Amino acid sequence: MKKALLIASFIAMAATGVAQAAGDAAAGKTKSAACAACHGADGNSGVNPLWPKLAGQHPKYIMKQLHDFKAGKRKDATMAPMAAPLNDQDMENLAAYFSSQTRTIGEAAKDKVAQGEKLYRAGSSNGAPACSGCHGPAGGGNAAANFPSLGGQSADYVAKQLKAFRDGTRSNDMNGMMAGVAAKLSDAEIAAVSQYVQGLH
Question: What global pTM score does this model have?
């Protein structure tokens, strides 16, 4: 009986530890005041389409990007100093807040939808795999594999990141796969799939 109680106590303590380690969305909202100028108060970044929407993004993915900016694994002159003072709890709180927000969906350029959808769902004739294989049919991503949610993301931001993966100025994806994917896409294909993603939900 004592052994059973002891085991139950350890399980309860472990569960409490996990709960305490999770981000606090309310604290994240307070901390996000510094982020709002670029990413918007709710993470929908309406100011500049080159800045990503954080709303609805997987918390693990947000945390990885913040860690990478802080460590210099992902380069950005604006984000590096913003991430530098953040500790792990700050990052968890911000991730909890932004992931809890609802992403707004944009509208795809009509002349690029057909080509963009084909690339997203079937890949390119040059051998680039379908985006939907990792990012999901509706662009929701894969939280377990840390593949980001793309649906509704700004086309300009998506295109910028694909080009950065292609030219090697960004290389902080989980397994280096994005460089190979982007290398097989032309500028026109990047523009088309980015537009499709902007209206995807």
Answer: 0.88
The annotated binding site is made up of 35, 38-39, 79, 131, 134-135, 178
Inter-residue contact 35 to 106 (CB < 8 Å): no
**181: closest CA among 143, 138, 150, 144?**
150
3-class secondary-structure state, position 147: strand
Looking at the structure, tell me whether residues 43 and 80 fall in a common domain: yes
CB within 8 Å of 81: residues ≥ 6 apart: none
Nearest residue to 148 via CA among 131, 127, 167: 131
Q: What are the 10-residue block averages of pLDDT along the chain, 201 residues in total?
A: 39 37 91 97 94 98 98 97 98 98 96 98 97 98 97 98 98 92 98 98 90
Spatial CB neighbours of 20, under 8 Å, sequence gap ≥ 6: none
For residue 109, what are the contacts with CB-CB under 8 A and spacing of at least 6?
155, 195
Q: Which residues are annotated as a binding site for heme c?
A: 35, 38-39, 79, 131, 134-135, 178
Give me Rg for the CA atoms of the chain.
Answer: 19
DSSP string, 100-115: TSPPPP----GGGHHH
Q: Do 141 and 72 reside in the same domain of the chain?
A: no
Which residue do the tokens 């609802």 mark? Answer: 102
Residue 150 located in a structural domain: yes
Domain count, the chain: 2
